[in-house]
Amino acid sequence: MSPDVSRVMKVAARPSIVMVEGRGSWIWDADDKRYLDFVQGWAVNCLGHSPRVIVEALESQARRLINASPAFYNEPMAKLATLIAEASGLGDVFLCNSGAEANEGAIKLARKWGARHRGGAFEIITMEHAFHGRTLATMSASNKPGWDTLFEPKVPGFPKVPLGDLEAVRSAVTPMTTAVMLEPIQGEAGVLMASDDWLRGLRQLTREAGILLIVDEIQTGIGRTGRLFGMSTRASSPTS
Fold first, then answer.
1. Which of 47, 120, 135, 233 supports an S-S bond with 51, CB 3.0-4.6 Å?
2. What single DSSP character describes residue 3?
3. Tell me: the pLDDT tens digits for 18-51?
4. Which of the following CATH numbers is that of domain 98-215: 3.30.390.50, 3.40.640.10, 3.30.70.2740, 3.30.200.210?
């Protein structure tokens, strides 16, 4: 029998079934009915449900230390940051809890950089049909149909241009522009890809304009496209 879900806030339309177990690409509900899971945690479960390597790592770490708080460094934090930095070629790693939080952090960093190095610039050019998260700022950066009237007023500073149109990006750059932000592949829009040549051209444009390039790899990073990052080998050092 499924547990009572009446006290769970209705933040999304969900079927009445309650999932209780998953292995690989399969997931079971409370009535022991099995489903082939094409959702995979919204592109989170790169290795499927409950893979042994993750279960063993969680069990081992839970016996030692679960949460030291952000007030202290911890050993797994240092190891993971080193692995990501070395694999990506980037300098620092900001560890957080969700894709929206990662993009929110990128927006804050870009605005801080604009305040320090570009005379207070704060605008971030984003793409039509983009999806960057569900916080107020990331929703404003997105261009998902039906979101234009939600949770008004929007956070200002996110002009939109078509994905793949380099001249539109160039025309949108002003003294108030601090960065361009995009997904290498737009997932929510229907799997729309930014071409290799366009990404390289965009990186060159941002260098010439003296602004940052933010690559949202929430759904394309960590091996989901067959290479570690969707930006890898496509645009020379595309993220600042």
1. 47
2. P
3. 999 999 999 999 999 999 999 888 878 889 999 9
4. 3.40.640.10
pTM of the model: 0.88
Alpha-carbon torsion angle 63, 69, 70, 74, nearest 10: -30
Q: Is it the case that residue 96 has pLDDT exceeding 80?
A: yes
Spatial distance between the Cα atoms of 52 and 59, rounded to a whole number of angstroms: 10
Q: Which burial class, exposed, middle or buried, applies to 33 when counting CB atoms under 10 A from its CB (0-12, 13-18, 19+)?
A: exposed
DSSP, residue by residue, 124-164: EEEETT----SSHHHHHH---TT-TTTTSSPPS---EE-TT
Structure-block tokens of residue 228: 């570690």
Helix, strand, coil percentages, rounded to 5, for the chain: 30, 15, 55
Q: Which of 175, 174, 187 is nearest to 127 (CA)?
A: 187
Contact 218/99 with Cβ under 8 angstroms? yes
The answer to whether residues 33 and 23 touch, using CB atoms and an 8 Å cutoff, is no
Tokens of 111: 């605005």
Tell me how crowded residue 96 is: count the other CB atoms within 10 A of its CB. Answer: 12
Domain locations in the chain as residue ranges: 19-64, 69-95, 98-215
**CB contact at 8 A, 131 and 186:** yes
